[in-house]
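Predict both folds.
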Amino acid sequence: MTRTVALIVGAGRGHRFGGETPKQYRDYGGEQLFRHALRAFADHPDVDAVQPVIHLDDLSLFETATEGLDVMAPVGGGDSRQESVLRGLRHLQSQPPDRVLIHDAARPFVDHGLIERVLAGLDSHGGAVPAIPVTDTLKAVTDGVIDETVDRSRLWRVQTPQGFRYREILAAHEAAAGLQMTDDAAVAEHVGLSVAIVDGDSDNMKITRAEDLKMTELPGANWEYRTGHGFDVHRFGDGDGVILCGVEIAHDQGLVGHSDADVGLHALTDAILGAVGAADIGEHFPPSDPQWRGAPSSVFVEHAARAVHKLGGEIVNIDVTLICEKPKIGPNRVAMRDAVAAMLEIAPGRVNVKATTTERLGFTGRGEGIAAQAIATVRVALVNCTERRL
């Protein structure tokens, strides 16, 4: 019986994606990208085992991403993709498969049809890779000036999974150790293996930058827009300044609160949580819990944003209104907008911060404190028309 193992490579750090979390562990459709890729192979009837290759610093992230999935214990990767693949192949030597499929965790939208086409290609060739013919006109350029038009008739964009007979691709990778090659097909070509092209899939895109996710639609998903509202109040007390929407402002008083008393961010946190039905700031960060004493309110906002991302959603627009007689908000409004945008990892143009007064009426009019209200609009995925809940 032919035995097939899928080697899923997710040891990269994803620097071009941005943020502290490697891209393969970012949420999409309520699950990490890595999980999407692993499940496609774990659920395929012709794949006998799935061997992940990860960066061992990401072990806790990996365990979360693979909870309940039938995959092998991970192998630690190397400094390059090529080295990570070689380590994964070597690890399989104790029980060598007949065939191996090598796939990038950053391609989460691979489907069973594509896997089957690659496996079929191995029936008559030493390797098989999915690819899409180049349709754009190509130009050779020197110093910003076109030299010539390149014939595209023989050019293809190659994807993964790339399939090979196990012993042959292991030997090829051993022979190519120390060389710099862009994919496993190049490694195979280096030792003269015959590699066939099978039809690729335009949905099987590689996620490289954050904007790549925004260009995709989760297969089987419908979308809806939700709006949440937040309101908060803090009274003035002793101090020489306040923090509003993440910006420190000199003032003859401070705001009283268990955390840093950033009334604008507290209202914003409630607005975002409200948009995804995730209760309120007090439930997630109880004022009775001493760990939040003096904490920066950006922690609360970023937590609320993650609640949106867990639904495969994104924050579309934020509007914060600060209500006070003093201090003056106008000179700091742009800095506040930029600070909020940075916390949420969205464009500043999606954030608005403004101020108003109550014409000296009420507690804000008497200068006893500051109030804030916020509205958040988010877009979330309804996968297979069934709402996901936190």
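Second protein follows, with its predicted structure tokens after the sequence.
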Amino acid sequence: MLTRNLSSIIKFIVFLSLGVFLIWITTRSLSSKELDEVKNLIIAANPLVVLPCLVIVVLSHYIRALRWKMLITPLSYSPKNSNVFFAVIIGFFFNLLFPRLGELMKCTMLGKHEKIPVNQLIGTMVAERIVDVICLILVISLTIASQFHVVGTYAKELWATFLQKISFDLRQLTFYILSFLLLVVILIWLFKKIASKKLIEKIKTLLLGATEGLMSIRHLKNKPLFFLYTFLIWLLYLSSIKIGFLALSELTNLGWIPSLTILTFGSFAMIVTQGGIGAYQLAVQKTLGFYGISQVVGLAFGWLIWSMQTVLLIILGPISMGLMSISNNKKNRAT
């Protein structure tokens, strides 16, 4: 446990430091006058556009909650939509604090209030992430196929960075798997020597529950609806960028293709650093440069979109925790 916590803290510091470094990269070539322009552009952003963008983001989270519930239902549980939605928001909120903490927190909170085994919820969460990775690969492929002449070189750079990140994670994963296998061997030996059948059955139940949650996607009652939800989630992400262009007068003429390109490279950026800080702004700035947008405007839009989504989660995260606790306490008193 101590090793895992220490690893999470080190990863948080490394990714946050990388984010700060990338912020410096994006601003070092700008004069103080240009930095003031960035700030003024953000302040002058049309609030009548920012508000609909926030609503779209929240709607995407709600549809994500509905999709997650579809993975939970085959396990013979039917959690309240509100609880699943609050758990999703809580998950995104805690992911801003530490890498992957959100996944554990959202499963823990939902499991606590809906009396669902957390190991099964973790299995469904892994299944959901697999679907999202497949979708991201499809979005990347579509972007590169349609815009290779524009973004080909940058795509190669980001892909190399992504592969390095994956390689690092794979080395970690290999270490964890080998450590896990060694631990299993030791535990089996100890069980044969001293452990009770009750303890063995408990561990077996935990592993089987996680596997059952992971395989829940095979038992979906309405697969077309599940994939419709998945499509809508990504369409809403894309729409929030497209509508966001209207917040700055310099970007109002940009269409769906630049929005798709930002969605692609922005998704890469969210993986590279903690919460996407620094990397997201740089990705948006460079992407908009391909379409003739100045560094100043590109950076301002990157900060606008990132700040909008981050502040939204900082506000909604604690609110969701409070509402989830209050509503379920009332339900418990009523019963």
